Amino acid sequence: MFRALASVLLCCFFLEASFWVHFSYGDLTTCSGIVPMTERGDKISITDFGGVGDGQTLNTIAFRKAIYRIQHLRRRGGTLLFVPSGVYLTDSFNLTSHMTLYLARGAVIKATQDTSNWPLIAPLPSYGRGRERPGGRYMSFIHGDGLEDVVITGENGTIDGQGDIWWNMWRQRTLQFTRPSLVEFVNSRGIVISNVIFRNSPFWNIHPVYCSDVVIRYVTILAPPDSPNTDGIDPDSSSNVCIEDSFISTGDDLVAVKSGWDEYGIAYGRPSSYITVRRVTGSTPFAGVAVGSETSGGVENVLAENINLYNSGVGVHIKTNIGRGGVIKNITVSELFMENVRTGIKVAGDTGDHPDNNFNPNALPYVKDLMLKNIWGVNVQRAGWMHGIENATFTGICLSNVTLQGTTGPRPPSWNCNAIRGAAIEVSPRPCAELTSVEQSGSCASHS
């Protein structure tokens, strides 16, 4: 289903070359070649280890036995674990290096809703505590730590987090620890995730953290619009990440680039860099493309292009806060279309909470060199909101060829700006004065 959807969507996208290393297959520009797909000579099935796809049998032991076999036999070239059609209920489980988790058409790996058994793991050092609650956090449903050469793929099978029980715990304030992500890789490299449907994550959907060389392509990510904190894909203190050709509709940001939280992220000091987001379509009550708000390790060299958003909160959201520290720089968003959006472009220095009271109020974030070009929106309620931080003005902002049309009415969508500096070329409606001064025209020239 999704391949057909992706084919239709691709016909609607503008194609433009990346400003750093990219690969071309025919007319399609892609960064996916940073991690070549591995052909596994050794293949096993979850049914070989007692797996039963009846939707009722608990398959935790079967998955753990299969992965133990892959880890300890170490077949040359790695092993493919095949999950045939059926519904395989299981607790959370860990992957291992040099493996492919392959979901056949009609295969569903479904998380149990027995939260009492869910493993707890330590907080991420760049966060200092769980993102939602102090202390540790629940391990992701499918987890990998310190791995390399791992593939999750198939024939558009489904990984279902059955997150509603976790969402209700969050709403009722009965959570003891931070909810689990659906898939998380930590300190890993050479990761490919493709041709899989991710549904109803308890928390963030796909979370590569402290990773490098990650490709996420041809995925569908779905969660209800009122599901709390169900971000689609969150590259976090990671580098060389390629996100392409996907459909995401969730309850929070579709793609959010992060790098640690306040004093913990500053101390850990690992930025996110060289992140490409290309040909992504979706809807969300929050942001389509976001940077932040946890950016204390820094974020640089992000390219998002050929993005289609509808029925969403914000088109592009750069967000940070006093106490974050870190530098956000060289962010480019181009070829973005949005329809029925509350705010087209938002750049904010007052967004996001703090892990505790030990953050440094003098740790000011610096935001510079933002290029926002070839952006078109219809039924946009507010064109832009750009508020930097006093004593840490956001600089080098360039808007080029931006048209944001409002809903029917006498007043066009407006801009609201403070503590920013930049330039605007061919922008409608007319932007705020901080983006129109002659002195700032170099902000766009430096991106040309």
Protein described:
Residues 1-26 form the signal peptide. Pfam families: Glyco_hydro_28. GO terms for molecular function: polygalacturonase activity. By secondary structure, the protein is mainly beta. The chain has a single domain (79-444), classed as Single-stranded right-handed beta-helix, Pectin lyase-like (Pectate Lyase C-like, 3 Solenoid), CATH 2.160.20. Helices cover 10% and strands 45% of the residues. It has 5 helices and 30 strands. The protein has a 22-stranded parallel β-sheet that branches. A 4-stranded parallel β-sheet has the order 7-12-15-18. The radius of gyration is 22 Å and the shape is globular.
Largest sheet: 22 strands, parallel
Using the alpha-carbon principal axes, give the shape.
globular
Rounded to the nearest angstrom, the radius of gyration is 22 Å
Provide the helix percentage: under 10%
> Distance N terminus to C terminus?
39 Å
Number of distinct beta strands: 30
Write the layout of secondary structure elements.
Elements: H1 2-12, E1 23-25, E2 28-30, E3 42-45, E4 54-58, H2 60-73, E5 79-83, E6 86-90, E7 93-94, E8 99-103, E9 107-111, E10 120-121, E11 137-138, E12 142-145, E13 148-154, E14 157-160, H3 164-171, E15 183-186, E16 189-194, E17 196-199, E18 206-209, E19 212-217, E20 220-222, E21 239-249, E22 255-257, H4 262-268, E23 272-283, E24 287-291, E25 299-319, E26 327-348, E27 366-387, E28 394-404, E29 415-418, E30 420-428, H5 442-445
Parallel strand pairs: 3-5, 4-6, 5-8, 6-9, 7-12, 8-13, 9-14, 12-15, 13-16, 14-17, 15-18, 16-19, 17-20, 19-21, 20-21, 21-23, 22-24, 23-25, 24-25, 25-26, 26-27, 27-28, 27-29, 28-30
Antiparallel strand pairs: 1-2, 10-11
